[in-house]
C-alpha cells in the first residue's frame, strides 16, 4: 500500500533488502547531460511527530456523531472526527512523518471505535498508527481484521497487529526526507488471549524479538527505527522500574556501529510521563491520551490528568557519513488537552497565548515531562 507520503511496506527478507537498496541507489542518482551519472542528491532531514492513545467512549462517540450531523444533516448516522482534531492538524500535517496510537480496535459497538476514526486520523495528517495494545484483541481475530482493513482503506500504515503470518513478517517503512523510517509496535499484555493458532496476531514486548525485528528492519532499508511500546502503569506520572530498565536495555543494544533503536514512544499510562535521553536515545515514557473519553480515578471520580497529553516532535538530520546514525537535532514536546465538554483536542500552548485559562495545565504537563532532567539534554516546549 502506498499512502499520502509514499509509505511502503517491505518484507523483512535479505532478498528484498538488497532490492530496496538497489532501487534507492537508482532513485538518488541523477543523469548528467552527457549521460554520465550526476552527483547524488543532497540528503534531507525530517521532522517526526507522535501522539498518544486514541480511545473512544460514549461521550467521544456522541460528539463525533454530532459533528457528522452538523456537516451532513441531522440523522446522518455517521461519525466525523476531523473537528475533534482540527486544532492540532497544523502540527500533525506540518511534519514529514506523523504517527498515532490506537488503544482499541474498530467495530460497530462500544468499546470499539467506528472505522470513521481512521478516516479522521488520515485527514488530520497522520501517516501510520501503532496497533499493539491490550485492547486490540477485544473482538478477537475478526476485530483485528476489521481494524487493519479500516486503516488500509484510510491510507494509514500500521504496526503491531497482523491478520496473517505473512503480514506479521512485514515492517512498515515510511519515506521522510531522505530517510526510510520503520515503525515497530509491541504491548506488555492483552485483555484477551491470542486467537487459537495465531501466535503472530499481536507482538508482545520481548527484548530479543524487538532487537531482532529492529535489525531486520535495518536490513530491509530502514535508516531510522522508531519503537512504540504499550507499557507502564495506569495514571502513574513516573515510569516504573520495569520501564526504565527496559529502556536502558533497548537503547544499549547496537549492531553495525549504530544503535538498534533510534526513538522510543510510550503509551498506555493515560497520563503524560517524562521524556528522557537514555544511552543517547530519546525515550518518551508516556505520551498520554490524545483522545481519552472520561475515565475515572478508580474511585468513581474523574482524573483530569487523563485529559492531558503531549505531542512529541523530533527533528532528525542525516548522518555525517554513509551508514551512520541519523541524529536528533531538536527535541520538542507540545502540551495537549482533550476538552471533554467541547469534544476537542486543544493545543494548550496556543490556547494559553490566545488568552485561555490553561496555564496551570501547561505548567503541570511541563513539570512532569521535564522531571527526569530532559531539559539539560535540549528538550524544549514547542509551539
From TrEMBL:
Residues annotated as signal peptide: 1-23
Gene3D superfamilies recorded: 3.60.21.10
Chain ranges of the Capsule synthesis protein CapA domain: 47-294
Keyword entries, A-Z: Signal
Family: Belongs to the CapA family.
Protein name: CapA family protein
Lineage of the organism: Bacteria, Bacillati, Actinomycetota, Actinomycetes, Kitasatosporales
Amino acid at each position: 500500500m502506498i499512502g499520502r507520503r509514499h509509505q511502503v511496506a517491505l518484507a523483512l527478507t535479505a532478498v528484498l533488502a538488497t532490492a530496496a537498496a538497489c532501487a534507492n541507489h537508482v532513485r538518488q542518482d541523477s543523469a548528467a547531460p552527457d549521460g554520465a551519472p550526476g552527483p547524488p542528491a543532497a540528503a534531507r532531514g525530517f521532522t517526526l511527530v507522535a501522539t498518544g492513545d486514541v480511545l473512544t467512549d460514549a461521550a467521544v462517540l456522541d460528539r463525533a456523531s454530532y459533528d457528522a450531523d452538523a456537516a451532513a444533516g441531522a440523522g446522518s448516522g455517521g461519525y466525523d472526527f476531523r473537528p475533534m482534531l482540527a486544532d492540532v492538524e497544523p502540527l500533525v500535517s506540518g511534519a514529514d512523518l506523523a504517527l498515532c496510537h490506537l488503544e482499541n480496535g474498530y467495530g460497530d459497538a462500544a468499546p470499539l471505535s467506528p472505522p470513521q476514526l481512521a478516516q479522521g486520523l488520515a485527514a488530520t495528517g497522520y501517516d501510520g498508527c501503532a496497533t499493539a495494545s491490550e485492547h486490540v484483541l477485544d473482538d478477537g481475530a475478526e476485530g483485528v481484521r476489521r481494524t487493519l482493513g479500516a486503516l488500509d482503506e484510510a491510507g494509514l500504515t500500521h504496526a503491531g497487529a497482523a491478520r496473517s503470518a505473512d503480514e506479521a513478517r512485514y515492517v512498515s517503512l515510511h519515506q521522510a526526507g531522505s530517510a526510510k523510517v520503520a515503525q515497530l509496535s509491541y504491548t506488555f499484555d492483552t485483555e484477551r488471549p491470542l486467537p487459537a493458532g495465531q501466535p503472530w496476531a499481536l507482538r508482545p514486548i520481548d527484548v530479543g524479538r524487538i532487537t531482532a525485528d529492529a535489525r531486520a528492519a535495518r536490513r530491509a532499508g530502514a535508516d531510522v527505527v522508531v519503537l512504540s511500546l504499550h507499557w507502564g502503569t495506569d495514571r502513574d506520572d513516573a515510569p516504573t522500574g520495569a520501564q526504565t530498565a527496559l529502556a536502558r536495555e533497548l537503547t544499549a543494544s547496537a549492531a553495525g556501529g549504530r544503535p538498534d533503536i533510534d526513538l522510543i514512544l510510550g503509551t498506555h499510562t493515560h497520563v503524560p510521563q517524562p521524556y528522557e535521553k537514555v544511552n543517547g536515545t530519546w525515550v518518551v515514557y508516556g505520551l498520554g491520551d490524545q483522545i481519552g473519553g472520561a475515565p475515572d480515578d478508580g474511585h468513581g471520580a474523574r482524573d483530569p490528568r487523563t485529559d492531558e497529553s503531549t505531542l512529541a516532535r523530533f527533528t532528525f538530520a542525516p548522518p555525517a557519513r554513509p551508514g551512520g546514525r541519523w541524529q536528533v537535532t531538536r527535541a520538542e514536546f507540545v502540551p495537549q488537552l482533550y476538552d471533554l465538554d467541547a469534544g476537542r483536542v486543544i493545543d494548550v500552548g496556543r490556547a494559553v497565548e490566545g488568552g485561555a485559562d490553561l496555564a496551570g495545565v501547561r505548567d503541570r504537563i511541563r513539570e512532569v515531562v521535564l522531571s527526569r532532567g530532559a531539559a539539560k539534554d535540549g528538550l524544549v516546549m514547542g509551539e
